[in-house]
Protein 1
Amino acid sequence: MHQIDPQADIKLVAVDMDGTFLDGDGQIPDAAWEIIAQLQERGVAFVPASGRQFETLRTQFARLGDIPIIAENGTVVMQGDRELYSNVIDPASVAEMVDTVREQTALDAGVVLCGRRTAYVERSDGAFARAIAPYYRAVQVLENLHRVDDDIIKMAVNVGTGQVQAMAQALKLPLQVVISGSHWVDAMNHSVHKGLALERLQESLGVSPEQTVVFGDYPNDLEMLGRAHYSFAMANAHPLVADAANFRAPANTEHGVLQVLGAYLGSSARH
């Protein structure tokens, strides 16, 4: 395990969720709350950074109050009810995305339109509802997604096992298409990602990359890792992430984020 310099002036810790901060059961480890409390006591901002919906993340971290949250793969940054940054997709591109997913009849696919107010779906079967539930707390089911009246900041497609590559290749859109999980393909405006969101947050807080720690495991974390000197790839990370990160952390199943942060908190307290 690589460690953070005990004398480093850390001011911000950003963590991806699935495969990184969450344990093998997809839960926040019980030990995390004490680690976060110690960070906050030292004036270090703890920031979840995920493809998940803001309302989902805010609920998961409700006990921490109005912390900064990077949601929807970096298309929105919120602190409580205050929007710090967002990036809206052109309605024509939204319509093209919906039509393209509908055309992929050979794939077990369902699209989620991530709006400012809530998430929108037109597929309502139980399997799809269960697949999106961990990521989207606020969801509205419509008969036709072309009738959504909201600003869309990200679009996500949930697909069956082994189908992400096929779906990503089918989405020939004027948008940035990224594989964000083993069952998820996301689309957003070009040059929008977690890294840009983190940069905007760093600017807002007056924090430098040298004062930032980032943990990630999947290619949608790459740009975010580039905004931190202390960029950690999980032991279970995608090879591209392992190559890009400056440091390594144990796997999420071993609570790797907490191991690294706990070691820093313990060692820095002695200096």
Note: The chain has a mean pLDDT of 95.
Protein 2
Amino acid sequence: MDTTCMAAGLFPHPPVMIPEIGGKELKKIALTVETEQRAMKQMVEKGIETVIIISPHNMCFYDGPALFLADTISGNLAAFGHPGISMSLSIDRMLSEAILKEAGPVIPLHRVDREEAARYGKSLSLDWGTFVPMYYLLKAGFQGRAVLLSPCFSHYEMNEILGAAVERAAARLGRRIGVIASGDLSHRLTPDSPNGYTPKGILFDRAVMDALKRRDKTPLTSMTPDFIEEIGMCGLPSVYFLFGILGKRKADMPCFSHEGPFGVGYGVCLYLPQQETPKEEIHDVRVQLAKESIRHFLEKGTLMHAPFSLSPALQEKAGVFVSLHKFGALRGCIGTFLPCYRNEAEEIIHNAKAAACEDPRFPPLSSYELEDLTISVDVLSRPEPAELSGLDAKKYGILVENGSRRGLLLPDLEGVDTPAQQIAIARRKAGIGKEEPVKLYRFTVQRYF
């Protein structure tokens, strides 16, 4: 199924962007305003029915993100001296409940209604992180409903998982959504910033904007808590959420800007995901075997036996990875880089079942999900010793080894363009430090869809 996410982007939320508040200061942030106006216009032109907004200034919880439920949620800018500037958003209850159901098995997603908010001494209202971007979306003509979220600051990856769950829930309902990831970048960008200054602020902003432009969050994953604390920000969790929404789909980026006139970084970007063109199905026996292995286990609770009659290719021994994707998002991947069973068929049967039910990153697959899966089978050549000069990120997968610690990365992955990136990721997967020596191996892959 093609994605029903019609547009998604990162948007800043300084109240000075509201003309009645900014006044003459608005011209200092003219680039951000102009880019945001253009982005919101394109989002509305895509015919979105519901806007998904994640704001770091709503109620946030330490152990997980939150979703806010009511028929309508209202707010104003009284805290900034303008109580007369107000709005009320109708909440998409059906999609909100679908998101809770989709995300619940994989992350702790808080369900916050008016009663729950009151338990914390709070009321459900629109914070400025929601209000400012929505001001421009409404000005652009949006008349639909909303889903309101807040991120988790203690586990950034949860926000990425939440983004993928939101996209899957919308696709399952056929809801055409637009996504606002609300967030400012470094709050200590220049020496005249009222929040203090660090020269690392601009390094953070450049890393985030480069990651967004290249659709590669790898540089963000190496940022230490001390670094993040020093630069002061509120938008990084929203950026992770945006990566989760987009998954690995191709997307155009018609709007992109960055500036920091008040010592705070304001980044704007808009993605318009390209509708995926259906690929001609290749009914390879390996993919059929993987699917039947999963179906057999889900229905009978036992591992299927290899077919009595095997083609010559499936009688050979080889390492095999089985990858499962659901609506474009990874749903499981397990493999062996060296053969562990009598032949390739048995390798596929065991690894397909493991990808469906034993990948620790995901809950076990449910039978109703099987028909939504896209399955690929990677057959690996035997790893051979290699040097950095002999690697090619598109052609070769790599294996790094230090004692009993091993990290493997398949070739030709989106966002991984160089052998150095491959090695860095494989080291992290194995828990091998940057300065520790490693043995390096390469292998090729034959991929079947």
Note: Residues 179 and 283 are 36 Å apart (CA to CA).
Protein 3
Amino acid sequence: MASMTQRVFSAMQPTSDSLQLGNYLGALLQWVELQDGREAIYSVVDLHSLTLAPDPAVLTRRTRVTAAQFLAAGVDPERSVLFVQSHVHEHAELAWILSTFTGMGEAGRMTQFKDKSAQVGESGTNVGLFTYPVLMAADILLYDTNLVPVGEDQRQHLELSRDLAQRLNARLGEGTVVVPEPYITKDTGKIYDLQEPTKKMSKSFSSPRGIIEILEDPKVVAKNIKSAATDSDAVIAFDPENKAGVSNLLTIYSALTGRAIPDIVAEYEGKMYGHLKGDLAELVVEALTPVRERTLDWVESPDRLDAVLAEGAAKASAIAKVTLGRIYDSVGLLPKRG
């Protein structure tokens, strides 16, 4: 079973050439903090990406680039385990076991399945998309995970993981798997699209001008912030309902500096939106440029990067093998000899 130290698991898909500011502020910075005092396991979950039928060469490149951004942001392979999901075969094997414990209606109620299948239509909806939450549950339960950092959009999937863990323990014996708990991360506020500030900033749905990419040219990053949509009254105030654009900029400013939004608003009293945008552009570029440069260093050294991922996969496999073996025994699969 898990060690006395609390174990944390979290992951991201390699679905883009660059992570965006919301990933950085809402996840990566939290991951870095969680390395202190906990056993942290982080993964690039490439098997999940197959539900979108990516170009094989693109998937390979994006998997490396995503891992490189984790490292560049401060994920330390000396203090955590970093690996690629497909390098640990136990993920797929446990997903099959869990699928036999999951009801069709239960899987069909997953909000993300409904949303994504509606976007791609019946012809683009595959079985992998339907069983995606089961593989996610396998990702979590495989490591006897105690804590899972989750955003609101993943909370339902974590609840499925908890339900399946409790179901396994009820049917197969208490302690078969650890029931994970949500880890409520520091509230940085949701980051919205710069051009459509009522919509979440997203690689899938944001326009090029609406998103801040970690690996984007700093000049483009600054330009996007300075051209962010606001409103016509030119009063800097935090009012997400009536002033979504400027409120989004204030949220980003607060997340980067750690300052309270009312203090930032007071500083800009009587000033124009251009002052806020210009200062924020400098802050964002200053924060992301070192991450961008370190990412490029990793990408340009693929052998060094692959070695880190191989070492991480070996560490992850050692844990996963024990968990899966315990579950195999519990469900009655004949032990392999020799």
Note: The two ends are 24 Å apart (CA to CA).
